[in-house]
Amino acid sequence: MCGIAGCFNPKAPPNEAFLQRLCATMRQRGPDASGTHMDGALGLAHTRLSVIDLDGGCQPMSSEDGRFTLVFNGEIFNFRGLRNELEQKGEAFRTKSDTEVLLKLLIRENAGCIPRLNGFFAFAFYDATAKTLLLARDYHGVKPLFYFHLPTGEFGFASRFSTLALCPGCPEEISLPALADYLAFQYIPAPATIREGVRKLLPGTAVEFQLETGAAREIDLGAQIQTGPDLAVCAEHFTYLGACGTVWSLLSDAVKRRMVADVPLGVFLSGGLDSAIVATLAAKHSTAPLECFSIGFDDPRYDESADCKATAAHLAKIAPHGLHHHIKTVQPEDFDLLPKLAAEFGEPYADASMLPSYFLAAFAREHVTVALSGDGADELFGGYERYRAMHILQKLRAFTPGFLWSAAAACLPDSGERTKAGRLKRFLRLGAVSGAGARYDALMSHFAAESISKIAPDLRPYLNAGCDLPEASSLIASLMEDDLHRYLPGDVLTKVDVCSMASSLEVRNPFLDPQVSRFARSLPVDFKIHDDHRKRILGDAFAAELPPGWGKRRKRGFGVPVASWFRTVWRDRLKTALLEELPRRWDMFDRAALERLISDHQDGGKDCSYLLFSLLMLSFQGKNM
After folding, report:
1. Which of 257, 435, 568, 624 has its CA 20 to 30 A from that of 367?
2. Residue 618 dihedral angles phi and psi, to the nearest 5°
3. Signed CA dihedral, 542, 546, 548, 551: sign only
4. Contact, 355 vs 332, CB < 8 A?
5. Which residues pair with 327 in a beta bridge?
6. Where in the chain is the domain with CATH 3.60.20.10?
7. pLDDT score for 300
8. Ramachandran bin of 523, using left for φ above 0, alpha for ψ from -120 to 50, beta for the remaining angles
């Protein structure tokens, strides 16, 4: 895992001091080494977290003749097979790293090699003769990449938003549509960022810059990756039992590939099915006791430590070399951590599960450098309760008018999402929304549009009226595709990357292996969600390895009781942040409306915690972010 950055600016060519400054902002992403490369008006910077070939693999890495240079963040898990192919074609290697394999592939095939890569990555590949620079990002968006390109030809890119902001010419104007999206969804969906003219490179996309002409062209790699020659036969040729066996085999191979490292490696272990599957397979492939990491909370509504211990106890019985289970109870209500996390994310981000994610990564980093996680399973295998809820709503709305749903919802108290009454009220409110896209956005935004328009009237024109859901075989399949391309990279993977990199920990995601992903997306929805059984095929595929009933465990998620903290330990500090700091840094918010919002939550019994937390995190960042 690394940090990469670079810029091209003939008017203000980067020098060594500037590139070292870029490296300094990415030190946590790569604490082990750093390097730079300059060619006229182009400068490249890299910081390294050494994981494979600790002595070799330093970057920027250039070809023997100096024509080609690569800066690369990520891992290529099939690099050994690709290296063998290249050696058979006469290529000689100086290192044992995946970086050199990628460099030689790009020299031979340019962007054409990307669909063959099994891994996660964001990289910049420079051709000094053709005067081109290619940026590319993995299909699922595991690794971030921000960039800008000016009409006059200057451009910059970086792994961190705050690093890119240092580049000369980086646009500074705040994007009001992006700010509206942030307040609604707690993150800014790609390709937008909080600044007009600064973009996130979309997952599965490349962009090539022509330095001499100033032109740029985007390359959509999605179709190539989805239909690559190594895709297994379509799932329609499988029986359910056969598909279970294929899922087991593909995931086993994916975990095995992700256990290649020259540094200590472990597994995140929650009380859920996904991490239990990853840990089970990792234990089978490990040649030493498996290191597992869990955290617990004092609040029983959010604490999974008992389930974590039960999972670890079961694994200890089947792990060939045993395991070491590390568990720590944390106090995530540390308010002073929030400004630090806001700085790490760079642009506004407010998924409160960043708090336990940060503590878990920091705890694991005390023992290992690499950790496996279960991210991606819910989006690929139907793990979210909202999929079935949306399906039921679609059927019921066909013969019941929206006003009846609104009237029923009004009869219930606003008692918070984790309560039965709160969940029912949310369901009824969704029934009042017309259109699947608008209904899904209302669900994902927790009905924030009305409150946002009151506290920030200037944002009213930019509040999303509803997303255009991807075409798919059914509503549930469409929702899963939308989550895979929007919510997963924008929220989940952003959180995992930033929180892990803050502690210099590399996190690998076996469920996002390209072969697993392709096969999962080709499966019928009924294989994944059957009645109230979510992730059905995962539970059945691994039933022999897990205790009875574990495949149907209720999903809790990595939540924290922010709503309660706003009424207790964070009560006064919330008021200070929103009524003093926020207006001082952002001038579009109505103070009286903010006061009403806070009062509604703290004294009026309403749950406004999602919007309040978004505003709180925004208060730590100014318009000059």
Report:
1. 257
2. -65, -30
3. negative
4. yes
5. 294
6. 2-226
7. 78
8. beta
pLDDT average, residue stretch 403-419: 80
Task: Supply the DSSP symbol for 51.
Answer: -
Q: Is the peptide bond before 583 cis (omega within 30 degrees of 0)?
A: no
Residues 6 or more apart whose Cβ sits within 8 Å of residue 49: 1, 2, 29, 30, 31, 32, 369, 504, 506
- In angstroms, what CA-CA distances link 318 with 15, 190, 285, 322, 453? 56, 42, 12, 8, 55
- What token pair was written down for 366? 């005390």
- Under a CB-based contact definition with an 8 Å cutoff, are residues 537 and 381 in contact? yes
Residue ranges matching CATH 3.40.50.620 in the chain: 235-382+473-552
> Model confidence over 544-579: pLDDT tens digits?
988 877 766 666 666 788 988 999 999 999 999 999
Task: Residue 77: name the closest of 509, 589, 581 by CA.
Answer: 509
Q: Are strands 290-296 and 265-268 parallel, antiparallel or unpaired?
A: parallel
What does each C-alpha distance from 277 to 284, 539, 558 come to in angstroms?
11, 9, 17
* Rounded CA separation 217/283 (Å): 45
CA distances, 96 to each of 92, 93, 124, 447 (Å)? 11, 7, 20, 52
Q: Which uninterrupted H or E stretch holds 146?
A: strand 146-149
Whether 248 and 259 have beta carbons less than 8 Å apart is answered as no
d(CA 245, CA 248): 5
Do residues 373 and 278 lie in contact, with contact meaning Cβ atoms separated by under 8 Å?
yes
0.85 exceeded by the pTM? yes
Question: CATH classification of 235-382+473-552 is 3.40.50.620, yes or no?
Answer: yes
SS (H, E, C) 211-248: CCCCCEEEEECHHHHHCCCCCCCCHHHCCHHHHHHHHH
> Rounded CA gap, 513 and 23, in Å?
30
Q: CA 245 to CA 268: how far, in whole Å?
A: 24
Q: Is the pLDDT of residue 223 over 60?
A: no
pLDDT above 60 (res 306): yes
| pLDDT band with cut points at 50, 70 and 90 for residue 53 | confident
Amino acid at 510: P
pLDDT number for residue 554? 65
Could you count the other beta carbons within 10 Å of the beta carbon of residue 58? 17
Strand, coil or helix: what is 209? strand
Q: Report how far residue 296's alpha carbon sits from residue 309's, in angstroms, rounded to the nearest whole number.
A: 10
Query: Cβ contacts of residue 509 below 8 Å, gap of 6+?
Result: 120, 140, 142, 258, 372, 373, 374, 375, 376, 493, 496
